[in-house]
């Protein structure tokens, strides 16, 4: 189990300008514990809307190089030293067809936004969280993956692969941090109402099947409050429980075996 979101004092949410990230930012700010929430995104008008809703807003393009990402993280820690929780929801989704021309620049950007930028941000926040952990303060890292991390959708092959990588990272990170007060919660949505599919023009078709955002957020906040290691719903939950949950124990056992061998 991870610490409950009810213990969080200050939560930084990426992807907070629309869809799941925005709704989570608003719902977390409205918790009875009233944590401070900082919403991050690129669109200025949406950031202004967050401010109007009482949420601090910071502009940042997560498709930045590692120097800019480090500078941003350091700026955030200096401005908001209370940050103890990351909800990493920024993400993009692009179709790819290997029988036609593959746009490698678009693929690289998708992988960077959905995977590397999250890994980099976690790495740069880690010393700050380790200091909090040393004084017994709970911290949370909550990357947003997808049910497609467990069963890939072939027409969005690179998106699915990026989410599978992020899911794998969550499992390893959780085990690495087992002896700290830093919890890792993987947020794994099914198809949910959002703007994610606007770029491909598939929103109208998908809207017939998606989970309404309000329903999704209610269930997700409940999982966050319980401190579930993986918060997943609907089809994502079915896939996680059938294919991935049985692996979690193995990840932990493999780490223990490796630790035993390294002591020999
Ligand atoms: N909706 C679904 O069906 C679904 C299912 C499974 C997983 N997910 C995941 O849930 C997360 C949220 O997606 P959503 O469905 O809520 O989509 P969305 O409405 O399109 O939101 C995506 C968010 O990511 C931000 N973002 C994208 N590129 C960025 C960049 N380069 N720099 C900074 N921010 C960037 C956007 O902000 P700006 O444009 O303002 O920068 C926006 O706030 C994503 O990780 C997505 O993969 C969604």
Automatic annotation (TrEMBL):
Keyword NADP: yes
Keywords of the record: NADP, Oxidoreductase
Any one GO molecular-function label of the UniProt entry: oxidoreductase activity
Cross-referenced Pfam families: adh_short
Similarity field: Belongs to the short-chain dehydrogenases/reductases (SDR) family.
Protein name: NAD(P)-binding protein
Species, as recorded: Lentinula detonsa
Organism lineage string: Eukaryota, Fungi, Dikarya, Basidiomycota, Agaricomycotina
